[in-house]
Amino acid sequence: MSAINSTIQQAIDLLNAGEVVAIPTETVYGLAANGLDEVAVKKIFKIKNRPLKNPLILHFSNDKDLFPFVDLKDNSQLKKDFQILYSAFCPGPLTFLLPKSKLVPSIITADSERVAVRFPLHPIAQQILKGINFPLAAPSANPSGYISPSCAAHVQNQLGDKVKLIVDGGRCEGGIESTIIGWEDDTPIIYRKGLITAEDIEKVLGVKPLYKIQKGNKLDAPGMMTSHYAPSTKTSLSENIEADINKFQSKKIGVIKILKDNQNLSVSKVLYLSEKGDLKEIAKNLYALMHEMDEANLDVILIEKAPEIGVGIAINDRLSRAVV
Ligand code: TXA
Ligand code: MG
After folding, report:
1. How far apart are CA 271 and CA 109, in angstroms?
2. What is the DSSP string of 219-248?
C-alpha cells in the first residue's frame, strides 16, 4: 500500500473509532469526525474552542448518501433547485442549507431546522468518505475565529498538538471556504460568499440569488459571525497602499499586494497574491500569505482589496472580516 493510501486507511480507522482527523478539501482543511456521534462531534468543538451555538457542515460523498439526512418534498422548488445546482457544481465548493431529517443530531445544527451539507471534490476527502458509512462533520481546521488553513502545515502550526492525524493532501486548490446557499420562501439566498459566485448560480437557476451576509455583530442566522478569518496582527484593508503606509510610519509594516509589480515600498515585508491578477489564484494564495505575514512579527498588515467582481467579491468579504 502507498504511504498516502495507508494514511487514508489510518484516517478511516480513527474516524470509525470516534476520533478527530484533519483532512484536505478543495477549499480549506477540515477538522473531521463522525457527524452522527455526538461524543466525537463534541471533540471538534473542544479542539477549535468553538461555541456550541455555531453549527457544523456535514460532508457526503454524493447526493445518494445525503438523501436520508434531509427532508426535500417531492416537486418542491427547493428540490428542483438543489438538483440543478448539484449537477452543475457538485462535488465542489458549494454548501446547501436544507431542511434536516430526524437522523441529524441537534448538536450539528445548533438546534436549527436546517442542516448545512456539502460534497467535497478533493480526491482524498472523497476516498475517506467512501470508506466510512457516516457523514463527516467538518468545520475549517483552525482555532475558532482565526484564519482557515489552506495547507497541512497551517493545521500543524495551529492545532498540531490537539489532533491525532493530519492527512496531507497538498495545498488546497480553492483556498477559501465554500459558498453557502439556502432558500427562504423558494428564493435562493447566499449566506456566505465563495468560489461559486452569484452569477454562476444565476446562470443555471435562471434567478439571481439574494445575499444575506452578516455584517455587524448581530446574528441573523447562526454562524454568520463577523469576527472571523482574523490574523493576530492588526490588519487593515487598503485601497491606497502608499497613503496607508504613511499613516503607520513608525511601525513595522507588512504589505500584501494583489499584483506582483516592481514598486519599491519602504516596509518590512511585501508579499504578492498573484502574477497577473487571476482571481482564482488570489483566492488560492490568500490565507497562505495571511498566515505567513502573521508569523513575521509585524505591528500591522496592510492588505490590498481585490477588484469587486466574480470571486473577488468573496475575497473582499473574507478580507473585511479579517479586519477587527
Ligand atoms: O469550505 C468549507 O465549507 C469548509 C470545508 C472544511 O468544508 N468548512 C467550513 O466550515 O468552512 P466552518 O464550520 O468553518 O464554516 C461553516 C459555516 C459557519 O459559519 C456555520 O455557522 C455555518 O456554516 N453553518 C453551518 N451549519 C449551519 C446551519 N445549520 N445554519 C446556518 N449556518 C450554518
Ligand atoms: Mg471556519
Report:
1. 39
2. -SSTT--SS-S--SSEEEEES-HHHHHHHT
- Closest C-alpha to ligand 1, atom 21: 223
Cα of 234 from ligand 1 centre, angstroms:
25
Smallest CA separation from ligand 1 atom 3, residue: 178
H or E element that contains 81: helix 77-89
Establish whether residue 194 lines the binding site of ligand 1, counting it when its CB lies within 6 angstroms of any ligand atom. Answer: no
| Span 102-136, pLDDT tens digits | 999 999 999 999 999 999 999 999 999 999 999 99
Does 165 sit in the ligand 1 pocket, CB within 6 Å? no
For the stretch 206-241, pLDDT in tens is 999 999 976 654 445 444 555 567 889 999 999 999
Output the CA 191–ligand 2 centroid distance in Å: 14
